[in-house]
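re: that chain from earlier
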Amino acid sequence: MPQPYHSHMYRTLFVGLLLLARLGWSGDTKLDRATLAGIKAVNVVIDRLDPQLEEQGITQDMLRSRIEEKLRGASITMDPKAVEFVGLHIVSMQAGKQPFSLCFSLALYQPVLLVRDQKIRTASQTWDVNAILVVPPKPLVQSTLNTADQLADLFVEAYRSANPR
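^ sequence. v structure.
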C-alpha cells in the first residue's frame, strides 16, 4: 500500500534538515569550544515548553533534572547562581494526529561586553548543538529525554575538551 504524500513529505523534510545540521550549522567548532575554557560552574535553564508537550507529560523539571544529572555525572559543577548557563530550547509542531516535529537547541550562554561600548552587557550563546526529531506521540516522552541526554553528552564532551581534568 503506498504511503500518503504527507508521510513522504515529513521524511524528506526531516532528512533535509538533518543534512543541514551535518553541514556545520551548529556551534561546536574549535573556536566555539574555546569559549568554554575556564568556566567553573553552570546553571541549567529550560525554556518554556509548548503546552502540547506538557500535555504529553514532558516538563521543564524533568528535562532540567536529566541535564543536571549528566553534568554532575561528568563532575561539572552546578550552581544556580552561576552567570554562565546551559539552556535548552525546544520548538515543537504537530498537525492533527501526525507525529511531533521537534527542534532541540542546547547552548551555553555567558556574559559578554560589546567592544564598542563596554557599558552594554548581555548574555550570549557561545557554544551550541541542535537536533531534529520526528516522533509519534506514544514514544514522545522517552525520545525527548533520550535526545536531551545526547545533547548533554555533547556538551560534556565539548566542556572536557576545553577544560581537561
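The chain has one domain: 5-162.
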